[in-house]
Amino acid sequence: MALEHAILVSLLEQPGSGYELARRFDRSIGRFWTATHQQIYRVLRRMEADGWIAAEEVAQDGRPDKKVYSAAGPGRAALAEWLREPVEPETVRHELAVKIRAAAFDDPSALISEVERHRESHAALLARYLHGEERDFPDLAALDARQQLQYVVLRGGIEYERMTLAWLDDVLATLRRLAGAGDEQDSEFR
C-alpha cells in the first residue's frame, strides 16, 4: 500500500487540511499505517499535482488561510483500482522474537527489562484503542457501513494488542523461570 491510498481513505472519510490529516494519522490511521507529517505534506503536494485530490483555500480569522483537501475523481478511480488488486500476506520481521531465541545462548534475564518495556508500550496502545472504542463507537447498533468497517479495523487492533500482551506475559514468565534456574545452577558451582 502506498501512503497515497491511506490519505485517500482518510480524505474520503472527511476532507481536511494537511495538519488535520497528520493529526488523524497520529490518532487513527497511524494504528496501521504510519507516516511523518513531512511525508504527508510531500505526498499531498504530489497528489494535488496529479489531480488525485482537490484543494480549497479556506480563510481563517487571525491565522493564515489553510488548504482543505478532498478526494477528486482520479483519486477515487485510483483507490477503486487499488482496492481490487490482490494483497500478499505480510511477512513479519520481529526483532524481539529473534532476541528471545538468542537468549538461549546467553543470560535470559538480560531480556526481562526489554520485554517489560515492550509490554508497557503494548498495554498503553491497547488502552488508547479501548478509549477510542468507547469514544467513537458508543452505540454499535447505530453504526453505518463506513463506521462498521472502521470499527472492524479497530477491533482487529484491539485483539492484536491483547494477543501480544498475552504472548509477552508468557515470554516474561519463561524468562523469569529460566533466570531463576540459572541462579540455581550458578549456586551449584560455587
UniProtKB/TrEMBL annotation:
It comes from the Bacteria. Gene3D superfamilies: 6.10.140.190, Winged helix-like DNA-binding domain superfamily/Winged helix DNA-binding domain (1.10.10.10). Pfam families: PadR, Vir_act_alpha_C. This is PadR family transcriptional regulator. Residues 92-176 form the Transcription regulator PadR C-terminal domain. Residues 7-81 form the Transcription regulator PadR N-terminal domain. It comes from Streptomyces rubellomurinus (strain ATCC 31215).
